[in-house]
Amino acid sequence: MISSKRTKRKPKRTGINFMRRRWTALLVAAMLCACLGFAQSKKKGDEDGRTVQGVVSAPDDSPIVGAVVYLKNTKTLQVRSFITQEHGSYFFHGLSPDVDYELRAENKGASSPTKTLSSFDSRKAANLDLKIKK
After folding, report:
1. If you average pLDDT over residues 21-27, what whole number do you get?
2. Which domain does 37 fall in, by range?
3. In a domain, 1, yes or no
4. DSSP secondary structure letters along 42-109
5. Could you tell me the pTM of the whole model?
């Protein structure tokens, strides 16, 4: 008697569904790697960028409370403002180290000369005092 053993064939993995699953898995893996790469690209300590702070004073060197300090990004021309607090102090944080900024103060129609915070200034915390000229 001839015995005939039937062996099951494994299905070939060349179907359209298999190819779709393979490409989908590859795409998901690539996206995951990209996300992880971007998440690690930020260096520790760079979260806030750099800061600038100072005091706005009158011609007689007394601090001015309530003066308006303008910070202009020379790359995008965006202007941020800050109203001086107690003792005439102001501060801006989260500034890009790759951009130059112009600062000036105004109070009751008078203003200070413009000062520049250069991108070549490597300080993380710069101190620029502004004096209002009459």
Report:
1. 73
2. 12-41
3. no
4. SPTT-SS-EEEEEEEE-TTS-B-TT-EEEEEETTT--EEEEE--GGGEEEEEEE-TTS-EEEEEEETT
5. 0.64
